[in-house]
């Protein structure tokens, strides 16, 4: 979680100087910001600095990041007429050329470091809701009004976005990304029934298309607020399901079934605690998840103000997970079988 | 959900004129605002107009409602010294005399209308977090820092609040309230493990104390964002567990077990939809919950801007629930047993 972060002083030097879109669309800056966390913490992967909204201007939907407000879409998509004016992302290399430059360069860095390059996209539901809402709204009011009064319009938009996101994720892979993460950041606005109708099938269509064309590329899906939706996700075509921190790891494993790998689910606020508490909480998560099929991660983005040293502790404990699991297995073996 | 509401024009006439604390602490106004939804929708209950923070000034914690920001506590409780300065609510009738005036008067109204009067309180965790945080914060940062660095301070505060809330809820009952609801409005900030340590035991202590002293008074507990915590709540001493709308009703029933009654869990944004959609969604919730042990409700407060007529439709469908369940039972009986 968090390809780069406001919690890093090196990052803030850039964010104080350049607006978000300039940072994410200027290869030199985006590459530098992508590399910062790797250089600081020697993570196993590099996540490219970008945003789930980055492909939208390539489809004719302009957005901007406004300080303290988040992304703002000045001209939200709320009618069939508007939908018809959108342009398919048929030629991403000409519409979003910086993506190729950034990812191919990062791939060289990743290869020479022996680590993995991760790309990511938003899900159709999340991008549709952002584009219809225009800005963050705790009730997702405008999108839900359309969902209630004109579900066909929402479905048409979801269908359009699904096709574009398949193209866009493919472009990321062909530019160098070795893993694709799908973020359903606004899944928390949906009841399980709404999730089944407006998000899951489209997310699944993207995943299946990617797995068909790029079977060697692992796909991770993460639904924010997905705790009540895990059973629905147990049939996912993705390789990994991300967990926020509202669910108990063992319950999540049970609901998803043995075949699904998981990512998560440490409370990011733990990183404000003393070192021994961070260590204890991360170890608790590792042991609850078990030695296989788990990518250690926080359950939501690293919070602004998090001490950089705490992220270091988190990564250090992660690197010792093999020893931790081996010790747990040895302790388990020494215990009487029926206790 | 929502004892009174910003969605009602009659309510806004008062909220435009008088600040929140004046409205909730002046008996004539609080009584009028409590009665408005009953008069408009002929609900089965009357919920007194108040706030979960209302008892805090009686313990020495002053708060104010700031437009667009919500409650603000100018002097947050973050030290042992501050905690020692707080005053137990041993004599609520002198500290919060308006509560008795409001509830005893409303009880006469409820009795003459043949409906039930509901009181409510916040849980120890939620009031502690409000008092430590000072204002709404999406990461609950200040409280969680204390949770990480000085959990003993948080536990002392929770212990103090638990005792005061038992007194305060008892005072509500003795003033006329016939049901007590406990709102754990900030439960969503807690992981299941944190909930087990910092909220559930204190909420349970309040509930058990009330059930011991007032066995005839039903207790409803509602944890916002409680979807991943339902199994933990299955041993509750409360009569009813409230559900937000992030969980599927049948899953919630399964996790809570057959002995626990439920309240909820319609998405409040449904009320922005056309009448037939509202009707269909409410009926779906009623049928999923089954004919017994369910209080129909929205899963979170009614959203500002909700048409008053939509609340009317919601209540009308609720009144027809007997006929709906009877019809479902008859249809079920006509189906072959093994299908």
TrEMBL record, chains A, B:
Entry-linked CDD domains: URO-D (cd00717)
A Pfam cross-reference name: URO-D
Pathway in which the depicted protein is active: Porphyrin-containing compound metabolism; protoporphyrin-IX biosynthesis; coproporphyrinogen-III from 5-aminolevulinate: step 4/4
GO CC term, one of those recorded: chloroplast
Catalytic activity entry: uroporphyrinogen III + 4 H(+) = coproporphyrinogen III + 4 CO2
GO biological process, one term: protoporphyrinogen IX biosynthetic process
UniProt keyword annotations, A-Z: Decarboxylase, Lyase, Porphyrin biosynthesis
Main location: plastid
Domain Uroporphyrinogen decarboxylase (URO-D): 1-320
Molecular functions (GO terms): uroporphyrinogen decarboxylase activity
Highest taxon of source: Eukaryota
EC number: 4.1.1.37
Subcellular location as annotated: Plastid, Chloroplast
Keyword Cell membrane: no
Keyword hit for ATP-binding: no
InterPro entries xrefs: UROD/MetE-like_sf, Uroporphyrinogen_deCO2ase_HemE, Uroporphyrinogen_deCOase
Gene3D superfamilies tied to this protein: 3.20.20.210
Similarity field: Belongs to the uroporphyrinogen decarboxylase family.
Stated role: Catalyzes the decarboxylation of four acetate groups of uroporphyrinogen-III to yield coproporphyrinogen-III.
Quaternary structure (record): Homodimer.
Protein name per the record: uroporphyrinogen decarboxylase
Taxonomic lineage from the root: Eukaryota, Viridiplantae, Chlorophyta, core chlorophytes, Chlorophyceae
